[in-house]
Predict the 3D structure of the following.
Amino acid sequence: MQSYEIRQCAAAACQFRFPVAIDNPAGADCPHCGTPTMLAATPQASGTRSLQTSPRFIRLELLLDNIRSLYNVGAILRTADGAGGVHLHLGGITASPTHPKLAKTALGAENALPWTQHRNSVHAVTQLKSAGYRIWVLEEGETAVNLFTATFPEQSNQPILLVIGNEKVGVDPAIQQLADCTFALPMSGIKNSLNVAVAFGIAIYQIQYGR
């Protein structure tokens, strides 16, 4: 893993401060004014884990229903790995972890979780529900429950499928009809939704570790 350092411009009138890979010659001079820089700090390695705990649901699987953005898919993969997801179901147009452009945001997580590709997300949810999975959907709507007021057990091995939908149209209506529960994030600004990868990150950490 590449190591980094924090460099700072030596010019009193500038003092531009920035991270750069150790031994990268670009760090020798300030990118703002061209003055030589000095070592300002050495950050802790980003791969160091400072906090570990067991997730609430040890059989939490995810279905990405027609996620169109490779950036979003990669970010979701990385977050799912960090939050204790155990399997990915990729529906419709959702790109698989083998896509070369996913690595930029997944940062290795594309190789960490087993996955299954499905042509039809509705069929996949129907089969998993028949197999005993609880179907949870992250989506706005009149029947949605505030995720932060929902009650979860301390720990459970119940199989859960958390469904995240398309950036423009959300979760397929047929999947919403199959859901055992629909969760939504409260919104207080002028917008009524968040980026799907951001919303997913908030949701899965609340589900797995929230109190």
The two ends are 34 Å apart (CA to CA). The longest strand covers residues 4-9. The chain has a mean pLDDT of 89.
